[in-house]
Amino acid sequence: MHPRSMKRFGGKLAGAVKGALKGRLMLFEIFLLISILLLGFMIRILPMRWGVYLMEFDPWMQFKEMNYVIERGWRGFIDFFSWHDYTSWYPHGRDIGRTAFPGLPFMAAFIYHLLHGMGVEVNALELAAMFPPMMAVITIIFAYLLGRELGGKPAGLLSAFFLSISSGHIERSLFGWFDDESIGLPLMLIGIWAYIQALKDDRSQRGVVAYAVLAGLSFGYMSASWGAARFPLAFIPLISVLLALLGRYRRELLTAFTITFSTYTLIAVMVPKLGPGYLREMTILAGFAAFIILLSFEVSRLLPEGKHTKRLPYYVIAASVLGFAALMVLGAAGLPGFKFLSVLIPSLRYDLPIFVSVAENQLSTWSMLFRDFGFQSILMIVGVYYALRRRRDEDLILAVFAILSIYFASTMVRLSTLAAPFVAILAGLGLAELVTGFARSLKATALKPKTRAVGIEYYLLTPILVGFILLFSFTPGAYGIRYPLSGIDAAYAPPTIVSSSIGARMEIASWLKALEWMRENLPEDSVVASWWDYGYWITILGNRTSIVDNATLNSTQIGEVGYAFMSPEETAYKVFKTLGATHVLIFVTHYPYGQQAGVLLGYGDEGKWIWMLRIAVQEGYQLNESEYMTPEGSPTDKFWSETTLGQLIPFKPYQISGQTYHIYNPSNLRHFKLVYASDEPYTSYAYVYIYELVD
Questions:
Q1: Reported pTM
Q2: Pick the CATH number of 510-693 from 3.90.79.10, 3.10.129.10, 3.40.50.12610, 3.40.190.10
Q3: Strand 672-677 to strand 583-593: parallel, antiparallel, or no bridges (unpaired)?
Q4: Are 382 and 437 in contact (CB under 8 A)?
Q5: From CA 56, how far away is CA 537, in angstroms rounded?
Q6: 267-290 pLDDT, tens per residue?
Q7: What letter does residue 635 receive in the DSSP assignment?
Q8: pLDDT (0 to 100) of residue 206
């Protein structure tokens, strides 16, 4: 064969081999990604072993809203906004259409109607319970895409893997966690990814517009679904101006931002809970300011060269700062609400006991952050370093977002779920860069063995150490462990209603029995007073009217309930009757020692009474905390003998051999008649007691 023919043949053969290898690598990448998605999905459906229930409390309200839409067909999407619910916040009720975000129930109801129209019959509760794991799969896919933007396929796959096993994300995307986060997180990642795509240097004008519209729609629907949407809605203006200040301004940045901002703002103001007044909030005002600043960059490029022309954007920034200050002084600019402002300034929340009483609103500790992020937090630091060193648009966007979200997670426990995807993405980049560097060093060592500065044992130790770290963060802990060590630990827990809200990995049917009894035995016009924690369960699962619930819309009414529980019997009776209550429910947790003694656990009202007192004080009632609680944090004799709650709790403290035990000894009250007890004394860890108010 002629040498030239041989060369052409060899080139074709090499190309064929290269193409075949590339195809196999693509198939292998797809296989890995699908495996990661299945892993993440399977971890998140572990709670199914306890049955089809929703997690915690708020998901039940979301389910009620979803059902309202489903029961009314397609017209339910319109009727929702005029829905006034009189089964909660008795006697005034709640205007659901104006106080609830419609995004999640609307999306789930739409899927239900779509499947129903295709002839696929699904159970509404099963759909609601399965919705979060399905959305988690979408979140993991976009974590892969964002990781791939930063560091190629290896970083993308590692980002997806880290998110699939992230405790911080799993805890809010479990089977049954039918709440705002389940739809808010995938929408946020889609929006960030689309905005990054819109800013690509080689993107056509049509592509910029298309991706900017997608980003705006994602952020807009997120604003209709989750209050935490304020963060990305404020972040987009911030990072856009930052990119311009770093010398990265171009007309595509102005175009992408303008379309994204206008789209999500238009959607946000159409949400009744936000309304046109949302335009006055700093979240949206920041967007208007960013638009003017970016426009000044464009104008400075069009004007003739000059010192003041170049400085025009900085003059505009200074004017914007002064304008913000003036609007604040005049009261024309609205703050984003106490809850969101306290994320920036955590000390503010301690002025409002009703806010601090919610566990998920507490400050995070280092142990909590490590529990949520594990060793990913260390790799994330490496990823942030590499991203900031390169300083591409996508590097800066994701690195700054990760840093800010970590800060917010440190100021509020609940926001770990907001940071989890970005910790995973930057951790994926960090590990990918470490492995790539290790491979380069190993290659250099193989080529020049005599010039090795580091022994081969260190090169072998590095991947082994990383492997053990990942294995540790993935391996589940001992059965029954209270603080999860891995994502599997976080997922393998029963729904709150099944464990009666005491955090045990077992079925404790006290609440399920009580709510069933309530549905079947209490008169339909009954009004049940309880602490606000149980309001959604009473209304939705017990099918009876409640006075306060988990929406905590009316702190005055909550304070009145707290005051009633902390008052003597006659006062409590008058307050409960004024509120319209016919029955009073309390929840008690108790660890039995045999059949004659035990100790209160503190998960029920025996631990929540201090917040009843503090919120009552917040609403103007004169109660001295030191009279009811000892310096050691235990209830005083006055609590047990003079407060209605202390007397309604049937387990009273006794000293036996110098130790305090709580022995069953119910009080006989004139106006509170016990009509239901979920369990006999010393037979359970949780007890629900229902009292009828009698003259």
A1: 0.90
A2: 3.40.50.12610
A3: unpaired
A4: no
A5: 10
A6: 999 999 999 989 988 889 999 999
A7: B
A8: 94
